[in-house]
Amino acid sequence: MFHARLLELESELIAREQSARRFAVLPPDCKCLLEFIERQVELRLGNPVPPDWRGWLTYRRGADSLIVCRGRAVARQGSLGKCRAGLDVAYGLDTVTEYERGFDVSPPPDLDHLLLNFGAGERSQVYLWYGENLAPYRLIFMADVADYPYEALSQAVVEACTWILKKPRHLTLPEFLKESEKPGKPSE
């Protein structure tokens, strides 16, 4: 148990170091992975949506990372029922406006989200991180870009989105996962 946890911490540390080193120009394989996840989720921050829409959306942070989080329809004043996909927070319209103006939109601390980015090392790596509250990101998926991890990455995003929906607000991700693994709990 100790050895497995130590390896997990070491790989997360290496992932943080590699993802801190940015690519001068994002390689085409990495761009394809970003676009693939965007197409899987379908909606982007600021897209037109029906007035009662709630669901998942994506948006880019810089040229080399992608955020996946919950969103809802937000209406501009005087827009006569035309709504846009905004973050699922009270100031969702402000996030759309800032994003459209080209400002960096940070995920709010009260909205669990996923961050997809890349590491520049000997081999390009793709990372999927889980962010909750003010806690630092937790690495939940890592793979070599050269291995074409499209399906595995897609499955990791789906599983993490499921965690976000099922996790009670009072539990952190590790507490929730430990709670769901207890004997007597039905696995889904």
Describe the structure.
Strands 1, 2, 3, 4, 5, 6 and 7 form a seven-stranded antiparallel β-sheet that branches. The N terminus is likely disordered. The longest helix is centred in the N-terminal third of the chain and has 19 residues. The protein starts with a helix and ends in an 8-residue tail after the last helix. With 188 residues, the chain is of the alpha+beta class. A hairpin with a 5-residue loop joins β5 and β6. The protein is globular and about 50 Å long.
What is the number of helical segments per DSSP (H or I, 4+ residues)? 5
Task: Give the structural class.
Answer: alpha+beta
Terminal CA distance: 25 Å
Using DSSP, what is the number of strands? 7
Question: In terms of topology, how is this protein built?
Answer:
Layout: H1 2-20, H2 28-41, E1 48-49, E2 54-61, E3 65-75, E4 83-87, H3 92-100, E5 113-119, E6 125-131, E7 138-144, H4 150-166, H5 173-180
Antiparallel strand pairs: 1-4, 2-3, 3-4, 3-5, 5-6, 6-7
Task: Briefly say what this structure is.
With 188 residues, this protein is α+β, with helices and mostly antiparallel strands.
